[in-house]
Amino acid sequence: MSSSMERKEKPKIDLGPKVASYPMPVTIIGANVNGKANFLVAAWFMAAGISPPKVAVALNKTHHTNRGIKENKTFSVCIPSEDLITAADYCGLVSGVKADKSGVFDVFYGKLETAPMISECPVNMECKLERVVDNGGHEIFVGEIVSTMTEEKYLTDRAIDLKKVKPFMLSLNDRLYYALGDSKAKAWSAGNNFKP
Amino acid sequence: MSSSMERKEKPKIDLGPKVASYPMPVTIIGANVNGKANFLVAAWFMAAGISPPKVAVALNKTHHTNRGIKENKTFSVCIPSEDLITAADYCGLVSGVKADKSGVFDVFYGKLETAPMISECPVNMECKLERVVDNGGHEIFVGEIVSTMTEEKYLTDRAIDLKKVKPFMLSLNDRLYYALGDSKAKAWSAGNNFKP
User: Fold this and answer.
1) How confident is the model at residue A1 (pLDDT cuts 50, 70, 90)?
2) Strand A24-25 vs strand A168-171: parallel, antiparallel, or unpaired?
3) Which residues of A fall within a CB distance of 8 Å from B38?
4) CA separation (Å) from A88 to A39, A194, B46?
5) Least Cα separation, residue B1 to chain A (angstroms)
6) Cβ contact, residue pair B169, A23, below 8 Å
């Protein structure tokens, strides 16, 4: 390995203990709080299981939404498209304690009955709370997905097609929302002929 | 609200309990296993704390990398750029049990000494293991970030600039890697004038 030479060409600098920018998927987390739909924009989100399918989201403990998730033991993960950027950003700027966000979107419910989903969002995952991990300033909510709601127009060959969904991502450090670019390669395939 | 009309225009279908495609940020998780650097591609990743900064990653229990993280109580999160797609995909296709992946990248270590990082990656976060959450088929590793290594050329106004980093995302259902698109709006700002 040409380690020493490459190192000299690429001197690393340490920005310190910091959450670095990476493309954080912007989601809207829905929960009923005091019987009313409330929505919070959240980008600290990931899949966390396949069988059964699960998701995890880290939410600051101060959020109104957290109470609702614990009360009902249900929540939703709604994937907004680019044309919902301003509405989604609004849900991150304004707390449900101060503003009634139940009218921002057209709300619908699924089989869990207490996880509010958003008609305007191309994809909605309805989740049953599995556990809450106390993680200091944040709580990690792990949920089992019970329904994945979408529309025919967002599918290609029966799979959700992100070029049709048009999701957007957050860059944390410079506070920018980014669109999705072009597809570049096939996963679990592109590396087949790679020679280390 | 025009709920009933909108509903008719946008009939929802339920794909069943399923992790829906969303832009999953592709990372390479580094850990020493038996004293040797090992790397695994992982897209079930999120930030999980700001003070102190934390990350969380969900890894299938069968992975070789998990053992190393538990052994050393350290790991790294490396953000590859588009030009590392084939190498990253290779790290997801081939298990560290069968192949020695220590030579795939130019490896360097930081202050934790046992969290291997990747010179070729524009951004590397060095993490101290905080907790492991047993989550069925997957384990969620929560780590505290101790260093964020990058290079001057990836910064704009001292912040990591994703247009320079060129990260890529995974669409799970159709198994595609996507590039980052254009910036669309300012976060914590775009919604300022939104009227619900």
Assistant:
1) very low
2) antiparallel
3) none
4) 9, 40, 19
5) 7
6) yes
Tokens of A130: 């599995």
Picking from B24, B180, B194, the nearest residue to A47 by CB comes out as B24
Q: B40 and B65 in contact (C-beta within 8 Å)? A: yes
- C-alpha distances in angstroms, B49 versus A63, A169, B46, B141? 14, 18, 10, 13
Q: In this predicted model, what pLDDT tens digit does every residue of A149-187 receive, in sequence order? A: 999 999 999 999 999 999 999 999 999 999 999 999 999
Q: Is A2–B106 a contact, with Cβ atoms under 8 angstroms apart?
A: yes
Cis peptide leading into residue A25 (ω within 30°): no
A3 neighbors B102 (Cβ within 8 angstroms) = no
Which residues, 6 or more positions from A195, have their beta carbon under 8 angstroms from its beta carbon?
none
The rounded distance, in Å, linking the Cα atoms of A174 and A190 is: 31
Determine the residue type at B141. Answer: F
* Chain B residues inside the 8 Å CB shell of A14: 110, 147-149
- Distance, CA of B154 to CA of B165 (rounded, Å): 6
Query: What are the tens digits of pLDDT across the range B80-105?
Result: 999 999 999 999 898 888 888 888 99
CA distances for A158 relative to A27, A147, A148, A163, A186, angstroms:
22, 16, 13, 14, 17
Residue of B nearest to A14 (CA): B149
Whether B175 contacts A189, CB under 8 Å: yes
> Taking the model in full, what pTM does it have?
0.94
Phi, psi of A182 (to 5 degrees): -85, 155
Which residues in B lie closer than 8 A to residue A181 (C-beta atoms)?
178-182
SS3 B16: coil
Q: How many CB pairs under 8 A join A and B?
A: 405
Q: Burial of B164 by CB count in 10 Å (0-12 exposed, 13-18 middle, 19+ buried)?
A: middle
Please give the ipTM for the structure prediction.
Answer: 0.93
Using one digit for the tens of pLDDT, what is the confidence trace for B22-33?
A: 999 999 999 999
Of A57, A82, A89, the CB nearest to B188: A89
| Joined tokens for residue B194 | 């939104």
